[in-house]
Amino acid sequence: MNRKFRFWPALLAIFALIFFGTGNTRAEDYKQEYKLSVVPGASSGWGRTATFFADRVREKTDGRINIKVYHNSQLLSGKQTSEFPMLRNGAIDFALASTINWSPQIKELNLPALPFFIGSQPDRYKAMDAILAGKSGQMMAEAAEKKGVKVLGWSENGFRELTTSKGPVASPEDLKGMKIRVVGSPIFIDTFRELGANPVNMNWSEATTGFQQGVVDGQENPTNGINIPLKIWEYNQKHHSDWHYIIDPLLIAINPQVWESFSPEDQKLLMECAAEAEQFGKAASRIGMDNGESRAFLEKVGRLPEVTDPYAFMEEKGMIVTKPTPEQLQKFYEATRKVRDEWTQKIGPELVRAAEEDMASVNGSAGNAGAN
Ligand code: X2X
Predict the structure, then answer these.
(1) Which terminus of the chain faces fewer neighbouring Cβ atoms within 10 Å, N or C?
(2) Phi and psi torsions of 161, nearest 5°
């Protein structure tokens, strides 16, 4: 090779250094826009938390990280259980995601969907917080990370309550034969079959049409998070059963390559924004249902929502709210024992035991139904 040919690669390298930097992560390396996936709509509690997170990230990073929120399963062509693989393979950068939608791929995330497991605790919100802050929450996050995403934090869709067009449900007999829309995750089919209902698997993007057309008699979703923002009473769903049978925590997660592309300072800011989103999201999900903490918090930060008493609001809209008694809840608890036992084996008995210990650390004894 003569001198001339060695000169050109050197010059090119100098130009490359000038134009592309030295490999340090700088704002120039960042994408103009990052895509964040959310399954339900912008007015849902979950959708509002996603917007909150994106806004805080933009503010705290001085616009270096610009997240666009795609609500309504837009990035998923409506198929909510494909969110996890799409985040893993980089088709999506961020997700505010339900454990339910990722549970087909990550079996540990079925833990919060064990029927009457968390909801039957004396203080169900403390129980959820203890899990997320404890060993079992760590185990769920690690399970997701092992499968190829980075977890930044948690938020909450809420305890899932039953609504129906057919009549009040206060005990398992009332559910017999009812067609209930559920997410395409097998534990839901098992739970509703065991309760004598007829579960029908449907994507959320099609579910509302299903309610309108009367294809199903009922569905289950959180009150503040989904049922009220959706105006579920306008879809024939007049009856609300406050049974808290499962809860739906939300993961705030990011594609690992995207995470690695950020500077350590920006990574730290992202973690801080995730912690803020957790506080906001939990308060939005719990307002009017906890000991008043959520309302006080939202008031303090100037983000009090329009509906602060969800039960009074639903009744105002003509819904019939049924609160099963402790004895009735005990019947649901007994009727779903087989599902809990079978799914404990699938989820991993060690994880379920860790969750029981986390819950017992704030609530006394674990596993007693019907106390709230
Ligand atoms: O599909 C549902 O019911 C929803 C919106 O709550 C979830 O994505 C789990």
Answers:
(1) N
(2) -110, 155
Residues 196/175, Cβ–Cβ less than 8 Å: yes
Place of tokens 């198929």: 79
At residue 26, does pLDDT exceed 80?
no
3-class secondary-structure state, position 23: coil
Mean pLDDT of 114-136: 98
Residue closest by Cα to atom 4 of ligand 1 = 204
- H or E element at residue 321: strand 320-322
In angstroms, the CA 280 to CA 276 distance is 6
Q: What is the pLDDT of residues 172-191, one digit of tens each?
A: 999 999 999 999 999 999 99
Distance (angstroms) between ligand 1 centre and the Cα of 16 equals 47
Mutate to test the pocket of ligand 1, among 44, 185, 226, 285 (most ligand atoms within 8 A of CB): 226
Give yes or no for residue 309 having a pLDDT over 60. Answer: yes
The model carries a pTM of 0.91
